[in-house]
Amino acid sequence: MTEIITILELLRPLLRPCELKTLTLIIEATLAMTGRVTMLGISRWTEKGGSYRTIQRFFNGTHDWSKLRWALIKQYLSIKGAGRVWLIAGDEVVVTKSGKETHGLAKFYSSIQKRPVSGLCFLNLSLVNAETRKSYPLVVEQLVREEVKDTAPKAVQKKAKKGKAGRPKGSKNKNRTEVEFSAFQLQLQGCIQQALLLLGCDIKPCYFLYDGALGNNAGLQLVKQKGLHLISKLRHDSELYFQYTGPYAGRGAHKKYGDRMTVERLTDQYLRLKTVEKNIETCFYQVQVWHKHFPDLLNVVVIVKTNLKTGMSAKVLLFSDDLGLAYDKLVDYYRLRFQIEFNFRDAKQYWGLEDFMNIKEDQVSNAANFSLFMVTFSQLLLPQINGLDSDSILDLKTVFRARKYTRRIINSLGIKSDGFLMDDRIFQAAEIGRIHSKAA
Description:
12-stranded mixed sheet, elongated, 13 helices, 12 strands, Transposase, RNaseH-like_sf, alpha+beta, IS701-like_DDE_dom, 21% strand, 35% helix
């Protein structure tokens, strides 16, 4: 309990005293509880002052969770030391829900179940440290409005009627830096702006990481408008062209596009690395190429994997608008985007992102934001617990559950637990279920 209060002191300027007290009780209960993390479940594990009505009032309120998370992240940075390279990574997470009354309920594609499911979709931006390779949730918003849900990458799209092939008669050339964003892209751009305002002068991220949903010109332009470089993925069948290096024809505009880029045309001058492991040959090529839907050159890394036994091959196209970014950095930064999936895993498995049963708008927003707040809070809390040398959330919950049980037993015997439990060895007998053994 002492460690929780110490960390939450950082949030005193951002919360009213009653809200801070309730949040302390909720966090202590969530760390110790078993079963589903719902408002009723939390109230059953809270100490005095944490009734069900109190928990309801807290989740019915309005809280600026982004500022609360950023306050914790800044404290974490002051303890561990700020890294030199910081990235912002984004992705959507789908939460399955039944019923018909939950705010924002719609059909979204679940990559876990590999089919559309009825549920909620949340857009999350996380701050990623390239040195420690850890991700910290920062901004979370629900995809709610109908036009946003219809244009979200994981939304179930309705089949559109096909128009006539080719360019419309009388159409003129357009400036490809001036694009019209979809409702989802506008919301994503607003989240990026919110994240940059939170970071202020403390951290200056250079790159924004996202999956193939931003592998288009509109996605690139919305990121560039916020002063960041995009690192994303193109379709494997994208039409890319080498720069034209031939002679000038003597009339008209200079030729821009050369031969179309294919794996067969990637010569050794573009090869950066080749590895062979378990009969799988992996080649990394880096090339600056044109795409007819993008206004500027793209820095593309082509990853080609070939099965030496069968001869079958596959390729992945990663790209960035930063032409000076080395191939290994581009690949490594894109891999760091997966750290956000660990945030989603912990939020669903331990902190109630998959469990909450709230249906109203504010309650749904608070429940989702609280679960991702606990992801950041637990990362900050883990180093403060004596004997926890691992990053196991299960061990963290086991320790706090042992403390709660031990205090209840000692108090039931009429002994004041505050002085009796100063020695941490008292808790060891109740710490059953830990994965990692206690440090000597």
